[in-house]
Amino acid sequence: MTNASPRSTWHKGPAEWTIGQRAFLSVAFTWDLDRAYQRAAWYYSLGYEVFAGGPTVALRPDYLAPVATTHQSPTSALPHHNPQATFTSRGCIRRCKFCAVPKIEGALVELQDWEPKPIVCDNNLLATSRKHFDRVVDRLKPIKGVDFNQGLDARLLTDHRAWRLAELDIHKVRLAWDHTRDEQPILDAIMRLRRAGITKRAIGVYVLVGFDDTPADALCRCETLKRKWGIDPRPMRYQPLDTMKKNSYVRSYCLPRGGLRTSRTAYLLGLDSNLVHRM
Ligand code: SF4
Fold first, then answer.
1. Ligand 1 pocket test: which of 99, 153, 186, 206 has the largest number of ligand atoms within 8 Å of its C-beta?
2. Which one of 42, 45, 182, 203 is separated from 98 by 20 to 30 angstroms, measured CA to CA?
3. Homologous superfamily of the 84-278 domain (CATH)
4. CATH 3.20.20.70 spans which residues of the chain?
5. What pTM was computed for the model?
6. Which atom, in ligand 1's list, is nearest to the CA of 100?
7. Over the stretch 103-113, which tens digit does the pLDDT of each residue have?
C-alpha cells in the first residue's frame, strides 16, 4: 500500500492548451463556464481557432457557442486535467438523478485502448465485465499508488473483485454512500475489502450531502463510518447539474423539533441552518 497521493496534480479550473493556431478548452464543472468564456474570447481575439469540450460543454453547448466551436475537442483532454489519470470505461449502467454521467455519456462502454495510470476515473468500473475488470487489474499491477478516484459501486463488489483489487499497490479504494438506505451494501463492501487485506486507511467513502437527505441523515452516515467502522468519511456536497456557483445550492429541510443538534449538523455540513424548518 502507498500513502503518497497522486491527486494533487488535478488542474484547477478549465484545462487549456494550444496546438499551432488552435486553442482548446476543456471544462469539467459548470461553475467554470464564465472563466472558460473569458479564456475562449481572449484566444479568439488573438486569432486562434477555439474549440471547447468537456462534460460541462456537453451539458451546456450554448454557453460558449459565441466564442468557440463547442463539440468534443479532437484531442484527448484528460492529460490536461491530470496527467496521472486514466479511463478504462465510459458511461454507466445506472441513472442516479444527481449525476451528469447518464446525460453526457450514456450507456456503459468498455474501452479497449487506454493507458495504465494511477488515478482510475471510471464512472462505474465494477459494472464492467469480469474479463474487462480482470484485464484492468492485470495492467495496473506495475503501477504504484492506484487510486480509484470516482467511487466504486458497493452493490457490485464481489469477493472475487475485492481480492483482485487487493493485488494492486493501492493508495485508495473509494466507495460512495449516497443514501442512508444503502447501509448494508456499503457495510458488505467494506467487509469484503477488509477480508481481502485492504487496510481501513486505504478505504475512503464519499458521502453525498444535501441531495434528498436531511442533515441528520448525512451526519448519521458520517458518524457510522467513523465510529462504527473506523473509515474516514468524505462528505461531498450536492451541486445541481446547472449551477454556476459552487456550493451555492442549499436544500430546504423539514425536521422534527430538536434544536441544537439539527442546527449544529447543518453548520458542520456547510448548510444554512436558517433554512432548516422545524415542524
Ligand atoms: S452509479 Fe455513479 S456514475 Fe453511475 S449514474 Fe450513479 S452516480 Fe453516476
1. 99
2. 203
3. Aldolase class I (3.20.20.70)
4. 84-278
5. 0.86
6. 8
7. 999 999 999 99
